[in-house]
Design goal:
Layout lengths: L1 H6 L16 E6 L3 H11 L4 E7 L5 H9 L4 E3 L2 H6 L7 E4 L6 H10 L3 E4 L7 H14 L3 E3 L7 H12 L5 E9 L22 H16 L5 E9 L15 H4 L5 E8 L3 E8 L10 E5 L2 E5 L13 E7 L2 E7 L8 H15 L7 H20 L3 E2 L6
Parallel strand pairs: 1-2, 1-4, 2-3, 4-5, 5-6, 7-10
Antiparallel strand pairs: 7-11, 8-9, 8-15, 9-10, 11-12, 12-13, 13-14
Bound molecules: nicotinamide-adenine-dinucleotide.
Length: about 375
């Protein structure tokens, strides 16, 4: 009875109506691990037709579509697929390894096709600028695959910052790590330079950066002093069943940096695929009026690991307020794909725009270049 009375105060949650009169014709470039998640989410959308897929490995695209029970045309590369005008593609998901993100995204945009590009945006800042140039010339939607920011808990970080309760933000510590978590369950594409380009830095460092930079409005990065190492990845005993992977390990498994951002904000960053520690610490945001602690997750994946805590003062009293975790049943991947499709259909801005992620990429690139140089460097954003 009491529950019924309370129900009267509930907001009306209107069901989203999706126009299915015209289907979005989608192609998938790269049919490896993450393409499964793209496919699963596209298949839930009533206004999508998956018409094609491409992979460099012979027979891989065919096996992928067979596994998902989808009939689609298969091609041996992104170019072959995008050159086939008969497909009339509206959109592609670029699910290739990092090194081919730029060439696939640029080729698709030049063909007038909307692009959902997996994270990290690419490997270098120069590639990012070329992608944005192609995006601007095409007028098409380019969204980058940062689904963690669509989580309600991540949105809460931004709401807290935007509310002004933290005051002027001057210091941020972010990052995350795994005790043992080099991603080699499906082979070596994450650890070889020719495919990955960046290691932990690109794979999970980009998430830590997006968590805080999105919350504070993506200020421009100015300088960076970066460090990277590979003490675990090159050890044959790290991979009991594949000791040969050690010889293929050519990227970072740990990185750290001290970054200056516009607005006199310091960003203290660290990320690890492997280390002798459970976590390199929570994310903290310090402001003149309050501080926010965002617990890390054990196997860092860019999400909020537990209730956040706001440290502030109430009537002269030092106080902490716990922000409970918001539980949602919606898959972040479904939200990522749906928000991209909505932007494509309605001609609205990309849900995760390149205008923000260029700064994420600039920091990754800056950490890499500073670590190679062995000293602090200025971050220069190329023209686009
Ligand atoms: N958003 C997420 O949660 C998430 C999770 C895992 C991976 N990722 C990202 O997704 C990307 C792919 O990761 P993965 O684990 O699927 O890699 P993967 O190595 O399993 O698959 C990549 C596939 O792309 C193919 N490929 C490369 N270049 C191509 C081209 N030019 N044309 C056609 N096919 C091409 C490769 O042959 C390979 O089969 C990475 O950039 C990774 O960072 C995102």
């Amino acid at each position: 009875m009491a529950a019924n009375i309370l129900d009267r105060f509930k907001e009306n949650t209107e069901e989203k109506v999706i126009d299915t009169s015209k289907k979005v014709r989608v192609g998938i470039i790269g049919t490896g691990w993450i393409a499964d998640a793209h496919m699963a989410s596209y298949l839930k959308q009533p206004d999508v037709e998956i018409v094609a897929g491409a992979d460099l490995v012979e027979g891989k695209a065919e096996a992928f579509f067979k596994k998902h029970g989808v009939e689609a045309k298969c091609y041996g590369s992104h170019k072959e697929m995008l050159d086939d005008e008969s497909l009339k593609l509206d959109a592609v998901s670029v699910c290739t390894y990092n090194r081919t993100h730029a060439e696939c995204a640029i080729y698709a945009l030049k063909k007038g096709v909307n692009v959902m590009l997996e994270k990290p945006m690419c490997v270098t800042i120069e590639e990012a600028a070329e992608i944005i140039k192609a995006e601007k010339e095409s007028g098409k939607v380019l969204s980058i695959g940062f689904q963690p920011r669509l989580d309600e808990n991540m949105k809460m970080i931004k709401k807290i910052v935007d509310s002004g309760v933290l005051g002027k933000i001057y210091y941020i510590q972010t990052g995350g790590g795994r005790r043992r978590g080099i991603p080699t369950p499906f082979g070596t594409t994450f650890i070889e330079d020719k495919t990955a380009g960046l290691g932990a830095l690109g794979d999970i460092g980009c998430y830590s950066l997006d968590m805080v930079l999105n919350a504070i409005g993506y200020p421009k990065p100015l300088t960076v002093s970066g460090y990277k190492s590979n003490f675990f990845g090159i050890r044959p005993d790290y991979y009991p069943t594949h000791p040969e992977y050690a010889d293929k390990f050519e990227v970072d498994d740990f990185a750290a940096a001290f970054v200056r951002l516009e607005g006199d904000i310091i960003l203290d960053f660290r990320i690890a695929w492997a280390m002798n520690m459970d976590t390199p610490g929570d994310t903290i945001i310090l402001g003149t009026e309050g501080g926010l602690r965002i617990p890390s997750t054990e196997c860092w994946n860019g999400t909020v690991g537990g209730p956040m805590k706001l440290y502030h003062e109430v009537c002269g009293q030092q106080t902490e307020t716990e922000i409970p975790i918001i539980k949602t049943s919606e898959s972040l991947f479904d939200l990522k794909i749906r928000s991209f499709l909505d932007a494509v259909k309605n001609g609205t801005p990309a849900p995760v725009p390149s205008s923000q992620i260029i700064y994420n990429q600039a920091i990754l690139d800056g950490i890499f270049k500073s670590a190679e140089a062995g000293h602090e460097i200025e971050i220069t954003i190329p023209e686009f």
